[in-house]
Amino acid sequence: MTIKEIAKLAGVSISTVSKIVNNKDQNINPETRSRVLQIVKEYNYTPYGNVKNTSTAKSFIIGILLQNGSRTNLILNGILCAAQKYGYSILLYDSKNSTETELKHITSLCKNNVDGIIWEPVSEESTQHEHYFEEQNIPIYYINGFSENSYYIDFVHMGYVLTQKLLDYKHTKIACLLKENSLRSALVLEGFKKCLYENQIPYNDTTELYISDKEYCSKIINNHISGIVSSHFASSLILYEQMEKLHYYIPFDLSLVSLRDDARECISFPRISSVKIPYLEFGYSICEALIKKCERKESHLDNYFAVPYVLDNEDSLKPPSFMRAKKLVVVGSINLDATFNVDRLPQAGKTTTIRKSTTTAGGKGANQSVGAAKLLREVSLIGETGNDVDATFLFDALEHENVNTQGVHRDLNAQTGKAYIYIENSGESAVTILPGANGNLSPEGIHKREYLFKNAGFCLLATEIPIETVIEAAKVAKKYGVKNILKPATLKFIPDILLSLTDILIPNHKEAAMLCPNYNSVEEQAEYFLNKGIETVIITLGEDGCYLKTAKTARYFPAADFLSIDTTGGADAFISAFASYLSEGYSLEQSIQIASYAAGFCISRQGVVPALVDKNTLETHISKLEPELLKRNK
Prior knowledge:
By secondary structure, the protein is α/β, with parallel strands linked by helices. The chain is 37% helix and 20% strand. The protein starts with a helix and ends in a 9-residue tail after the last helix.
């Protein structure tokens, strides 16, 4: 392509093309200049030799001079994208933190007659060499430099945004996790302090933590920090792991927000709430602005480059634990339930034909924890499984329902517990149980999981595990100020020590009769338990509802109006819903009535875990029939 052909394509004279490619186009119309440059770039036009060798000839090359190239790969990607879009090549130099190497590169860039420079200086003294570029009229854009005309990613604003997000979640005891000798950390800390100041939250040395400090986790715990802003994603991952070893879990015990490099996008777990650092966008914008300056086009770029900063997720954020409804701890059996639909329950000497069978997670511990989790309660389950395929199935099922399984242990020497449930057409059921690993949940095992009782409101206890373990769990709960709700399944006798530790007792009418055979009426049985020191007694009566007895109240509650299909999980649905709404601040009477609806939903469906109702379905149903019931503090 000749200069004559370029001129013809552009519709201008040869002299006009010559002036433009040799940067002598001060008096030429900007639109004409842009049109000619576009054609020159598209057709890769190279000026004649005598033009090419002059210092003013355009080369369509952008020089990149970096302090340390290993830290700026993503910025380079952005620069390259912009350069390619506008028809430029890049010439890359890495100073490797050496001022001597940097000066050699400056000389080389001048010899190569680049059109413009993106320069990340090694030190404050580096800019004394900028006159080499000025003498050849080569424009410079500084990044991460030491002067006022340098351009930066706005880490201060990002630190502010992350801090504000924790404040939005009502955290006030927050700290900033930093790296020593890091410019990014220093700028994030500046934004952190600014946000605290503007929200009238005091700043002190305890809110400034460094990942290199071996005691930083202890400082978080001892200073009751509830939220962390991290300047580096790698530090967040270390924090996540270290806190788990101390039985502090994100976000249940500690909320965490972090900055994240683009390269971290492939990390899917743990799900840390983070803001992506816009390295790519920054590099693109810097290069685009420089090219426009080289081509004498108008452009504007703020010294602090900022884009809308939005968290990629909020999975590692929760309000402080003291502001949330207290979590539940469930201690009980975990089984694999095999459910058989039959025309009539098995009888001695008679063969029973099974019409249908299903396999699900079960056991009172699993049932109650899933019931609470479906009602959006934070719930931790303590129990034992075997080390078999059945255990893997149960872990998957529990985690799918958002149950915290940190307290569930695999016993290497036992098989997973199983329950065989027979359901006849009327909805009545018979259950046989193979305890398996459930029988190995020991008092020592409760102490190993003692941390799960922190910040709990209620402990749900079922007696399909060793009674000494139930008693120990009740003691640990009391130690942490947690109220005990006891379901006395399979018990013929309740030790007095367990009665003294129980706050709320919820037997069914058959269990109540078994435990106090000398009393015939429900009212007498409830009075018996009350005299044993239990504050609240609720005896469930199946289709007849339930009976409540306290020192001030004696009242029957009707059952919710549902067709009975399978009564197996009714009690577990009732207890989990009762505890969930009581922990949310509903009154005792309200919680019982809401729990009756939850039990109704469960018995109207097949199975237990699949039949447990979710919060939205439950409250939508109640709001249509008794909207006043969902208003707290009656």
